[in-house]
């Protein structure tokens, strides 16, 4: 699920989907709608739903399960979800149905509860650079995954954020600004560091009197090594939960990685396809705007699949930019009787365009035949 915001002012009529809610665009000041998208394992869109802007993640799943079954019939499907989507009640219903399977991430609290049981389990190699531990429990299978690639990526991100925060705190300690200024600048630095800020303990002096708040203020900070060890231990490791107890763990990990594809789909909807912001005020125009963006995403997903097969390494955006150099022109030739002969022609593709077209097995259509205007068509 994602949200897209509006450049419009409330209040709105009862039943209007534009509402204030949790903004994934970091625009809590704007009303929004929530958009849920369902894609296949290959990234092709199946369906979408527009909901009120104050809809929460965990209230959407049951309705989506019903909608997909109505549209596509009952079948053994695998639902891959982030940890904020399903409730325990909905997961119980999915297990009880006997035909609905799921792979879902789990919150850190559950990992803490299962830590003792997981320690006793041996690591097994699921695929190159991916290790797993399996823990069957209460009709489900918990899969503790360690991805060496993710360990390296998350560790590099954490180190970069920590170095930036550490450097900024050193600068502030040397500058020794006033108390209120210092608190504000430390808060900004911690906000930019995100979760990494919890690894550094900052000790501030007692608040001075109002008259002394402009005086230079010093503070102390230190690395919380206990928290750092805990974070290092969990980097690149995820706990998955599934009712597919007999499925290859490597396959379960691949299923969960499809969430990355969904996140990329939302990014393309918002950025490449200009889904946000929305300026329309009427419900039918809002729905039409989102529908056109969805259709554009369907075309983009098809192009992306084609590129994976025929031109790996080339993105849809790069393809459009390259082929965008081929232009369509109307060339007008006046005739002696006052009419015009019009040739609609596309420019000749460059060698790099011909290579692309050949690789994708595309052929440009023949040039259109000329047409001639009637004399009255030329009057302005």
Structure description:
This protein is an alpha+beta fold. It has three domains: 169 residues, no CATH class; 140 residues, no CATH class; 53 residues, no CATH class. It is built from ten helices and 14 strands. The strands form four sheets. Strands 4-5-11-8-7-6 form a six-stranded mixed sheet, with helices on both faces. A three-stranded antiparallel sheet has the order 1-2-3, with helices on one face. The protein has a three-stranded antiparallel sheet with strand order 12-13-14, with no helix packed on it. Helix 4 runs antiparallel to helix 5.
Radius of gyration: 28 Å
- Unreliably modeled segments: none
What is the terminal-to-terminal distance? Answer: 51 Å
- Class from secondary-structure proportions: alpha+beta
Number of helices: 10
The fraction of residues assigned to DSSP E strands is 15-25%
Largest sheet descriptor? 6 strands, mixed
Helix and strand element order: EEEHEHEHEEEHHEEHEHHHEEHE
Which oligomerization state do the chains in this entry correspond to?
A: single chain
Mean pLDDT: 83
Portion in helices: 40-55%
Main-sheet strand order equals: 4-5-11-8-7-6
State the domain count: 3
Q: What is the tally of beta strands?
A: 14
Q: Characterize the overall form.
A: globular
